[in-house]
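User: Just a sanity check before I run the rest of the batch. Below are the structure tokens for the first item. I only need the designed sequence back.
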């Protein structure tokens, strides 16, 4: 299961007013583990940043002047994110800017290349209604060290968001199955399995209690999205 956590920095808040992306970063997660692989690029926006945006990311036009344009790097970017689920905080903002840049490069919209987009801001609001859910607040809530975040930077923010996302969805780890594991049992035929003399050991009362407690924990951490609980309700 491959996911990409993505973040951008821009010259301003509105791509419809001609604002552009100045930095883009994408961090890879495989089977809920950060792999260390990432895509990161500063971009020449061919314009100045608004004062407010410059105060946030500190990327001056002089610094960006010799950096490549989006049209020069989009193929490498699309190759990196191809067919993955994108994890983005306040996804409509980044997706809007990326679709604008792809349009200028005469390419199709982002959803053509990725398998879907998960908005961690929406997820955080569902898990923590009425609370602050920006990246700094979530780092504090989940005890993730963001002390290096003096300015916004796409790569650092994507790395922090990856840790936040894994913390917010950690109940899912109990349901993961690694399909890549090599096990001799995988090579048994149906006949082999039928001929095995297997002992059936029913769970003890204590084990059933532990199982119920684990399901309660998963259900709480996933905001009542525990699949096992839903299947139990259907069976009953």
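Assistant: Here's the designed sequence for the first item:
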């Amino acid at each position: 299961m491959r996911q990409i956590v993505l973040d951008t920095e821009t010259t301003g808040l509105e791509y419809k007013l001609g604002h552009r992306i100045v930095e883009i970063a994408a961090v890879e997660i495989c089977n809920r583990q950060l792999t260390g692989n990432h895509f990161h690029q500063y971009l020449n926006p061919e314009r100045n940043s608004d004062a407010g945006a410059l105060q946030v990311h500190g990327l001056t036009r002089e610094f960006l002047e010799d950096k490549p344009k989006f049209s020069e790097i989009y193929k490498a970017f699309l190759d990196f994110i191809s067919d993955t689920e994108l994890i983005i905080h306040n996804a409509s903002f980044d997706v809007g800017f990326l679709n604008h840049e792809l349009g200028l490069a005469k390419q199709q919209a982002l959803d053509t290349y990725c398998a879907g987009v998960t908005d961690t801001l929406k997820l955080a609001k569902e898990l923590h209604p009425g609370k602050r859910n920006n990246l700094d607040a979530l780092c504090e809530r989940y005890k993730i060290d963001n002390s290096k975040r003096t300015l916004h930077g796409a790569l650092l923010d994507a790395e922090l968001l990856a840790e936040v996302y894994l913390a917010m969805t950690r109940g899912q780890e109990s349901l993961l199955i690694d399909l890549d594991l090599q096990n001799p049992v995988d090579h048994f035929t149906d006949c082999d399995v039928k001929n095995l003399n297997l002992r059936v050991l029913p769970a003890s009362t204590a084990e059933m209690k532990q199982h119920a407690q684990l399901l309660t924990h998963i259900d709480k951490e996933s905001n009542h999205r525990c699949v096992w609980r839903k299947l139990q309700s259907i069976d009953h």
